[in-house]
Write a structure and sequence with these properties.
alpha/beta
Length: 181
């Protein structure tokens, strides 16, 4: 039986490897761990030069990027809203989140939030490649997390039939949406 221990790394494409490393070092204080470059793809043997870089995302988590100079210019899926695909990093608490927001803004990064999600609070911004990033802290109680896990199977079943938002966990955003009227 497969037993996953953790995510080793998640890899995305970047426009410029050096710019990406410098941005993540400067803006998110991530250490540059490893660079691998080849003229052929090891798994397929295709002749396609690349630079593969790895950054320390904390606690054994690694964020990786590929620069692919011989491929067409990278873009986004035009059918997916830009807020959907993102990379979320966890910070310790609200003070750390607010300090991170202030630090990012002082470095010229445009930040959205904090945004309240009931069990987490988050800020959002973009890296130089157009990837949306999130910094978040978990504020949910063990009881709230238990409740969400308990209703998850019923929610996915209802969604699969109706394609409408089930209301089992609507309490997560009720206050925010009430404020909108």
């Amino acid at each position: 039986m497969i037993q996953i221990q953790q995510i080793h790394h998640v890899a995305y494409r970047c426009r410029d490897a050096k710019e990406t490393v410098e941005w993540y070092q400067d803006k998110l204080n991530m250490a540059f761990l490893v660079a691998i470059a080849e003229d052929r793809v090891p798994s397929t043997k295709a002749p396609d030069p690349y630079m593969h870089l790895f950054l320390d995302a904390g606690n054994g988590n690694i964020l990786a990027f590929f620069e692919l100079p011989n491929s067409p210019e990278m873009g986004r899926d035009p059918n997916t809203p830009e807020w959907v695909q993102h990379i979320a990093f966890r910070v310790a608490d609200e003070a750390a989140l607010l300090a991170a927001k202030a630090e990012l803004e002082s470095k010229g990064v445009e930040v959205i939030g904090p945004t309240e999600h009931g069990i987490i609070r988050s800020i959002y911004f973009f890296d130089p490649n157009g990837h949306r990033l999130e910094l978040t802290y978990v504020k949910g109680t063990p009881e709230q997390m238990r409740q969400l896990k308990e209703v998850a199977p019923a929610m996915i079943e209802e969604w699969s039939k109706t394609k409408r938002a089930p209301k089992h966990a609507a309490w997560l955003h009720e206050e925010e949406f009430k404020a909108l009227g």
